[in-house]
Design brief:
This protein is of the alpha/beta class and about 350 residues long. The protein has helices at about 35-40, 80-90, 90-100, 115-120, 135-150, 250-255, 260-280, 295-300, 300-305, 325-335, 340-345, and strands at about 25-30, 45-50, 55-60, 65-70, 75, 105-110, 155-165, 170, 180-185, 190-195, 205-215, 230, 235-245, 310-315. The radius of gyration is 20 Å and the shape is globular. The structure holds adenosine-5'-diphosphate. Adenosine-5'-diphosphate binds near residues 32, 34 and 115.
């Protein structure tokens, strides 16, 4: 027997407020030096996280004169734990998804900067390496814990795991299904038709989608789409996109011949499209947002284009060999920080 009608729980925004509501939240994570880097004398750290935990300084050759400072929502250094990253860059989005919003958490950066570690890593207490859970397992655990403690609602939770490789969508849970199609549902939502390779390569975007359907037993009806929530027949539906983007390194780093070059061009094209979509949202004079430029942006259309919550993690390596890639990743993050400036202008 369903419980008596009850109003939906009031939506609490955990870090996004007023004019900040539409802005992409950008967190930078600088990983520790690897053992191999530590053992090399020519490796100089060039990335310094400042005590305010929101600015990062990149010093060319460790110089105190030639440096650039960048400001973000949060900057986490080598000592930040997986739990710290989850609390800052993921949990607020997961809680929103549980309230019926769509949310996206993406990791951007060159190969080796720590994207997969941040999103996925799980090897624990292994004698040699004791890595701990990243954002994906923590999000799933958080969702199941929340759902099992909520006795007033019925939950249906499902997951897909896909990869976009050279503009082809593959279902990583079912290797036999390839070249899936992106379709638009009647209510404007985006879904993938036909969704199951397996190993995720640095030349592909890997995307986990967790869908949470929550039966509210409330007076909400299908015409009510307040605050950007999609409500269908009394069911709140929130989708969480967890995106491990392909390595953002430039062509000459990834190999400039044959398949490598073609792969790199495809990755660059989709990351450029992603950047354009983010910039378009930041610039009120741009009315056309080029979602259709790539499969990645088409799939993330809902989460980049509307009243949804997006958290972008910029993963960087702290040492001198990677300074150009680090600067380029930080600049990508700065562009994303501007998303929502239109809302700020209106608010003022
Ligand atoms: P990417 O996914 O960006 O290519 P990885 O996540 O594979 O990079 O990280 C490269 C290496 O650095 C891996 O060996 C990983 O375990 C290690 N690493 C990355 N971030 C951290 C971190 N915050 N703490 C400890 N080791 C890390």
């Amino acid at each position: 027997k369903p419980p008596p009608d009850m109003p939906p729980s009031p939506h609490k925004s955990h870090f996004l407020q007023n004019s900040d509501n539409e802005r992409v939240k950008v967190t930078v994570r600088s990983r520790p030096l690897t053992k191999a880097e530590e053992s090399r004398e020519d490796v100089i750290p060039v990335v310094f996280v400042n005590p305010d935990k929101s600015t990062v300084t990149v010093r060319r050759k460790g110089s105190f004169v030639d440096y650039t400072e960048f400001k973000f929502d949060a900057v986490l250094g080598a000592s930040a734990t997986q739990a710290d990253v989850y609390a800052v860059a993921a949990q607020p989005i997961v809680l929103d998804v549980l309230e019926g919003y769509n949310g996206t958490i993406m990791a951007y950066g060159q190969t080796g900067a720590g994207k997969t570690y941040t999103l996925a890593d799980v090897v624990i207490n292994d004698a040699i390496q004791s890595r701990v859970e990243g954002i994906i397992p923590r999000s799933a655990a958080n969702i199941f814990e929340y759902a099992s403690n909520d006795k007033n609602h019925e939950y249906h939770i499902s997951m897909s795991y896909i990869q976009i490789y050279m503009e082809t969508i593959q279902d990583l849970l079912n290797p036999e299904t390839t070249n899936l199609q992106i379709r638009e549902a009647e209510d404007g939502g985006i879904f993938i038709a036909g969704v199951h390779e397996n190993a995720h390569s640095s030349r592909s975007h890997a995307i986990v989608i967790i869908t949470v359907e929550k039966k509210t037993f409330s007076l909400l009806d299908s015409t009510n789409s307040s605050e950007g929530r999609r409500i269908s027949k009394g069911i709140l539906v929130g989708k969480l996109f967890l995106v491990d983007l392909a390595g953002s390194e430039r062509l000459k780093k990834s190999g400039s011949e044959g398949l490598r070059a073609v792969e790199a061009m495809s990755v660059n094209m989709s990351l450029t499209a992603l950047g354009k979509c983010i910039s378009a949202r930041a610039d009120p004079s741009i009315t056309h947002v080029p979602f259709r430029d790539s499969k990645l942006t088409r799939l993330l259309q809902e989460s980049l284009g509307g009243n949804t919550k997006t958290s972008l993690i910029i993963n960087i390596a702290p040492c001198c060999d990677h300074i150009q890639e680090t600067l380029s990743s930080l600049k990508f993050g700065i562009r994303a920080m501007k998303v929502g400036s239109r809302a700020i202008l209106n608010f003022e």
